[in-house]
Protein backbone atom coordinates (compact mmCIF):
# COMPACT_ATOMS: atom_id res chain seq x y z
CA UNK A 1 0.00 0.00 0.00
CA UNK A 2 1.21 3.49 -0.72
CA UNK A 3 0.91 6.57 1.48
CA UNK A 4 -2.18 7.89 -0.29
CA UNK A 5 -4.05 4.57 0.09
CA UNK A 6 -3.15 4.41 3.79
CA UNK A 7 -4.37 7.97 4.44
CA UNK A 8 -7.64 7.22 2.61
CA UNK A 9 -8.05 4.05 4.66
CA UNK A 10 -7.44 6.02 7.88
CA UNK A 11 -10.08 8.55 6.83
CA UNK A 12 -12.64 5.79 6.15
CA UNK A 13 -11.89 4.17 9.51
CA UNK A 14 -12.19 7.44 11.41
CA UNK A 15 -15.58 8.13 9.72
CA UNK A 16 -16.87 4.69 10.71
CA UNK A 17 -17.82 3.28 14.10
CA UNK A 18 -15.01 0.74 14.09
CA UNK A 19 -12.97 0.26 17.24
CA UNK A 20 -10.29 -1.92 15.68
CA UNK A 21 -9.17 -2.65 12.10
CA UNK A 22 -6.56 -5.10 10.80
CA UNK A 23 -5.42 -5.72 7.22
CA UNK A 24 -2.75 -8.00 5.80
CA UNK A 25 -1.63 -7.87 2.19
CA UNK A 26 1.38 -10.05 1.50
CA UNK A 27 4.25 -8.76 3.65
CA UNK A 28 2.34 -5.57 4.52
CA UNK A 29 0.41 -5.70 7.77
CA UNK A 30 -1.55 -2.86 9.41
CA UNK A 31 -3.39 -2.83 12.74
CA UNK A 32 -5.37 0.22 13.90
CA UNK A 33 -7.15 0.73 17.22
CA UNK A 34 -9.33 3.85 17.43
CA UNK A 35 -10.29 5.85 20.51
CA UNK A 36 -13.47 3.77 20.64
CA UNK A 37 -11.24 0.73 21.31
CA UNK A 38 -9.73 2.35 24.40
CA UNK A 39 -13.17 2.99 25.89
CA UNK A 40 -13.98 -0.74 25.98
CA UNK A 41 -13.83 -2.57 29.27
CA UNK A 42 -11.54 -5.55 29.84
CA UNK A 43 -14.58 -7.83 29.82
CA UNK A 44 -15.60 -6.82 26.29
CA UNK A 45 -12.11 -7.59 24.97
CA UNK A 46 -12.10 -11.15 26.25
CA UNK A 47 -12.37 -13.90 23.66
CA UNK A 48 -15.15 -16.41 24.22
CA UNK A 49 -15.05 -19.88 22.67
CA UNK A 50 -18.34 -20.77 20.98
CA UNK A 51 -19.54 -24.19 19.82
CA UNK A 52 -18.18 -25.02 16.40
CA UNK A 53 -14.78 -23.49 17.34
CA UNK A 54 -15.77 -19.90 16.52
CA UNK A 55 -14.29 -17.19 18.71
CA UNK A 56 -15.93 -13.82 19.18
CA UNK A 57 -15.15 -10.99 21.59
CA UNK A 58 -17.60 -10.89 24.51
CA UNK A 59 -19.08 -7.55 23.41
CA UNK A 60 -19.89 -8.92 19.96
CA UNK A 61 -21.41 -12.07 21.41
CA UNK A 62 -23.60 -10.00 23.77
CA UNK A 63 -24.65 -7.72 20.91
CA UNK A 64 -25.46 -10.75 18.75
CA UNK A 65 -27.57 -12.25 21.53
CA UNK A 66 -29.41 -8.93 22.00
CA UNK A 67 -30.01 -8.68 18.24
CA UNK A 68 -31.31 -12.26 18.13
CA UNK A 69 -33.69 -11.52 21.00
CA UNK A 70 -34.90 -8.39 19.16
CA UNK A 71 -35.43 -10.34 15.94
CA UNK A 72 -37.33 -13.16 17.68
CA UNK A 73 -39.73 -10.78 19.47
CA UNK A 74 -42.89 -10.01 17.53
CA UNK A 75 -44.27 -6.43 17.63
CA UNK A 76 -47.44 -7.55 19.46
CA UNK A 77 -45.52 -9.33 22.24
CA UNK A 78 -44.71 -6.18 24.24
CA UNK A 79 -48.35 -5.19 24.79
CA UNK A 80 -49.51 -8.71 25.53
CA UNK A 81 -52.25 -8.49 22.90
CA UNK A 82 -51.69 -9.81 19.43
CA UNK A 83 -54.52 -9.23 16.99
CA UNK A 84 -54.47 -10.71 13.49
CA UNK A 85 -53.28 -7.38 11.98
CA UNK A 86 -50.09 -7.44 14.06
CA UNK A 87 -49.54 -11.13 13.25
CA UNK A 88 -49.75 -10.41 9.52
CA UNK A 89 -47.31 -7.51 9.85
CA UNK A 90 -44.86 -9.59 11.91
CA UNK A 91 -45.13 -12.45 9.42
CA UNK A 92 -44.47 -10.17 6.43
CA UNK A 93 -41.46 -8.57 8.16
CA UNK A 94 -39.96 -12.01 8.81
CA UNK A 95 -40.19 -12.81 5.09
CA UNK A 96 -37.99 -9.84 4.08
CA UNK A 97 -34.46 -10.64 3.00
CA UNK A 98 -31.46 -8.35 3.42
CA UNK A 99 -28.82 -7.22 0.97
CA UNK A 100 -25.72 -6.47 3.05
CA UNK A 101 -22.47 -4.66 2.37
CA UNK A 102 -19.64 -7.09 1.63
CA UNK A 103 -17.03 -4.53 2.74
CA UNK A 104 -16.28 -1.34 4.65
CA UNK A 105 -16.57 1.76 2.49
CA UNK A 106 -18.89 4.49 1.23
CA UNK A 107 -22.32 3.52 -0.10
CA UNK A 108 -23.54 5.06 -3.37
CA UNK A 109 -26.96 4.36 -4.89
CA UNK A 110 -26.02 5.55 -8.40
CA UNK A 111 -22.98 5.17 -10.69
CA UNK A 112 -22.37 8.95 -10.61
CA UNK A 113 -24.06 12.01 -9.06
CA UNK A 114 -25.78 12.96 -12.33
CA UNK A 115 -27.19 9.46 -13.01
CA UNK A 116 -30.32 7.85 -11.54
CA UNK A 117 -29.98 5.22 -8.78
CA UNK A 118 -29.37 1.61 -9.77
CA UNK A 119 -32.58 0.60 -7.96
CA UNK A 120 -35.33 2.28 -5.94
CA UNK A 121 -38.17 1.17 -3.69
CA UNK A 122 -40.68 -0.88 -5.65
CA UNK A 123 -38.18 -2.12 -8.27
CA UNK A 124 -38.06 -5.80 -9.09
CA UNK A 125 -34.54 -7.27 -8.99
CA UNK A 126 -33.03 -10.60 -9.91
CA UNK A 127 -29.97 -12.43 -8.69
CA UNK A 128 -26.88 -10.81 -10.23
CA UNK A 129 -28.40 -7.32 -10.71
CA UNK A 130 -26.15 -4.42 -9.66
CA UNK A 131 -27.90 -2.67 -6.76
CA UNK A 132 -25.30 -0.10 -5.62
CA UNK A 133 -21.61 0.81 -5.39
CA UNK A 134 -19.40 0.64 -2.31
CA UNK A 135 -16.21 2.68 -2.61
CA UNK A 136 -13.22 1.46 -0.65
CA UNK A 137 -9.78 3.08 -1.01
CA UNK A 138 -10.71 4.83 -4.29
CA UNK A 139 -11.99 1.57 -5.80
CA UNK A 140 -15.64 1.59 -6.83
CA UNK A 141 -17.07 -1.89 -6.31
CA UNK A 142 -20.39 -2.75 -7.95
CA UNK A 143 -22.49 -4.76 -5.51
CA UNK A 144 -24.63 -7.46 -7.12
CA UNK A 145 -27.73 -8.90 -5.50
CA UNK A 146 -27.53 -12.50 -4.38
CA UNK A 147 -31.32 -12.68 -4.18
CA UNK A 148 -34.33 -11.79 -6.28
CA UNK A 149 -37.50 -9.95 -5.35
CA UNK A 150 -39.00 -6.50 -4.84
CA UNK A 151 -37.08 -3.70 -3.09
CA UNK A 152 -39.09 -2.72 -0.01
CA UNK A 153 -36.70 -0.32 1.72
CA UNK A 154 -33.35 1.40 1.13
CA UNK A 155 -31.79 1.22 4.61
CA UNK A 156 -28.52 3.12 4.07
CA UNK A 157 -28.21 6.77 3.10
CA UNK A 158 -26.51 7.72 -0.17
CA UNK A 159 -22.82 8.68 0.24
CA UNK A 160 -22.80 7.40 3.83
CA UNK A 161 -20.07 5.20 5.30
CA UNK A 162 -21.06 1.55 5.69
CA UNK A 163 -19.51 -1.29 7.62
CA UNK A 164 -18.98 -4.90 6.66
CA UNK A 165 -22.26 -6.86 6.81
CA UNK A 166 -24.37 -3.70 7.29
CA UNK A 167 -27.87 -3.96 5.79
CA UNK A 168 -28.24 -1.83 2.64
CA UNK A 169 -31.64 -2.95 1.27
CA UNK A 170 -34.67 -4.96 2.39
CA UNK A 171 -36.15 -7.22 -0.26
CA UNK A 172 -39.47 -9.07 -0.42
CA UNK A 173 -38.67 -12.36 -2.19
CA UNK A 174 -42.39 -12.90 -2.93
CA UNK A 175 -42.86 -9.41 -4.42
Question: Could you describe the 3D structure shown?
Answer:
There is one protein chain. The chain is an alpha+beta fold and 175 residues long. It folds into three domains: 1-39, no CATH class; 43-72, no CATH class; 95-175, OB fold (Dihydrolipoamide Acetyltransferase, E2P), CATH 2.40.50. 25% of the residues lie in helices and 33% in strands. It is built from four helices and twelve strands; from the N terminus they run H-E-E-H-E-E-H-H-E-E-E-E-E-E-E-E. A four-stranded antiparallel sheet has the order 5-12-10-7, with no helix packed on it. Strand 3 and strand 4 form a beta hairpin. The protein is elongated and about 45 Å long.
Structure, briefly:
The chain contains four helices and twelve strands, in the order αββαββααββββββββ. With 175 residues, the protein is α+β, with helices and mostly antiparallel strands.
Number of helices: 4
Radius of gyration: 19 Å
Mean pLDDT, as a whole number? 74
CATH class membership of the largest domain: Mainly Beta
Number of strands: 12
Strand order of the largest sheet: 5-12-10-7
Judging from the principal axes of the Cα atoms, what is the shape? elongated
Q: Give the % helix.
A: 10-25%
**Head-to-tail CA distance between termini:** 44 Å
Order of helices and strands: HEEHEEHHEEEEEEEE
- What would the CATH topology of the largest domain be? OB fold (Dihydrolipoamide Acetyltransferase, E2P)
